[in-house]
């Protein structure tokens, strides 16, 4: 199959491309570096010529509601519109478990993305997944100072590769609408994950202090609440597989 990946040069997109290529599919990467701009629509029609399925793992780094909603709405509309014109038979989107319970700005953007997909006129599947194993490190990178303040929250992290494999399995099959929530094998404390990452040498050495969060996020709002597929690789196994493990 000829399958296009929106956000194909990012962390998740690179894994999706590798899984697709390994399975013998033809991959089209939708990214500015390849002459395609999701926010303006430039290059989309040409890039989607002959494409049978699209996988959207595009992203924007922000905590602001207006920025997140603006990006996911504009990019989503442009992508779905071009997919409809190209006759794409299946549009697959990566979303996040719990965004309908946790009303922060970024998650509002992801909810808007799901709405655009449902109303877009292209047969679709949405896969909600939990946070990646990289999540703790990404948070630590954004926290300056001699002490790392990390939200005291529960997550059920999953490896990116397993998410990529699930997205590809969806894309080559029939549209399913809302697929079952995909989560990792074990519930973890985000603060503990950060401490273990620091101890392994994967982040700058400094104390990690948990910060209690009010509302749904602090009460496990990002954990799956129903049945669905589960990953295999634990955070500790993922950590051990990196070159900084044991430093």
Overview of this structure, please?
There is one protein chain. The chain is of the alpha/beta class and 247 residues long. The protein has a single domain (2-240), classed as Rossmann fold. It contains 9 helices and 10 strands. The strands form 3 sheets. Strands 2-1-3-4-5-8 form a 6-stranded parallel beta sheet, sandwiched between helices. Strands 6-10 form a two-stranded parallel sheet. Helix 4 (105-118) links the parallel strand 4 (90-96) and strand 5. Helix 1 (11-22) crosses helix 6 (160-171) and helix 3 runs parallel beside helix 4.
Number of strands: 10
| CA-based gyration radius | 18 Å
Low-confidence stretches: none
Give the neighbour order of strands across the main sheet.
2-1-3-4-5-8
Largest sheet: 6 strands, parallel
Shape: globular
- DSSP strand content: 15-25%
The helix tally amounts to 9
List the helices and strands and how they pair.
Blueprint: E1 2-6, H1 11-22, E2 26-30, H2 44-47, E3 53-56, H3 65-86, E4 90-96, H4 105-118, E5 124-129, H5 135-142, E6 148-152, E7 154-155, H6 160-171, E8 177-178, E9 188-189, H7 190-199, E10 208-212, H8 215-218, H9 235-240
Helix pairs in contact: 1-6, 3-4
In brief, what are we looking at here?
The protein contains 9 helices and 10 strands.
Keywords:
alpha/beta, 9 helices, two-stranded parallel ribbon, Rossmann fold, 247 residues, six-stranded parallel beta sheet
